[in-house]
Design a protein that fits this description.
The protein is an alpha+beta fold and 155 residues long. The chain has a single domain (3-151), classed as Trna Endonuclease, Chain: A, domain 1. Helices cover 35% and strands 22% of the residues. It has helices at 3-25, 81-92, 123-129, 140-151; strands at residues 30-34, 46-50, 53-60, 97-102, 106-111, 132-135. Strands 1-2-3-4-5-6 form a 6-stranded mixed beta sheet, sandwiched between helices. Strand 3, helix 2 and strand 4 (97-102) form a beta-alpha-beta unit.
């Protein structure tokens, strides 16, 4: 599969992940917006406000490598330098920013403080570093945990 095909596949998975997030989290008192921005390089994919707490999520849907010691993002679709810089700068300014990762088997939220390390970490290390993680498919209780995590302390 060529690089353009892999990137297109990753985008398709991110759209599906976003649709699951909206379905799982939506309530009348919550704002969930997918952001497509060609102007600000590195800006995350999604913006949320949940019970008065706002933040950003970069969505990633990597394929799990066959070797458990291989970095989850060893292939394409890594966090770009611009994405890492955006997440870290936003966090340093006191904002909430997350990397929401969905694999074939789990969903996890990693705080922006891990932006420089995410690309080199295997799945087992990402799960340990995650503020929270859930097995798929997620149920309503899992989605409430996801919402609570998004609102929690600065990642």
């Amino acid at each position: 599969m060529g690089a353009a095909s892999v990137e297109g596949c990753a985008v398709k998975h991110e759209v599906q992940f976003w649709n699951r997030i909206v379905e799982g989290l939506w309530r009348p008192d919550r704002v969930l917006n997918r952001v497509e921005n060609g102007v600000v390089d590195g800006m995350p994919d999604a913006y949320f406000t949940i019970r008065g707490v706002s933040g950003w999520m970069e969505l990633k849907c990597p394929e799990t490598p066959s070797r458990p010691t291989t970095a989850l993002f060893s292939g394409s679709h890594q966090l770009s330098l611009a994405q890492r810089n955006w997440l870290l700068a936003h966090r340093q300014a006191g904002g909430r920013a997350w990397v929401a990762i969905e694999t074939e088997r789990c969903v996890m939220l990693l705080g922006a403080k891990y932006a420089d390390d995410i690309n080199s970490m295997p799945l087992s290390q990402l799960i340990v570093a995650a503020s929270a993680w859930w097995t798929r498919p997620m149920n309503p209780i899992s989605w409430e945990g996801f919402a609570v995590c998004l609102r929690g302390v600065q990642p």
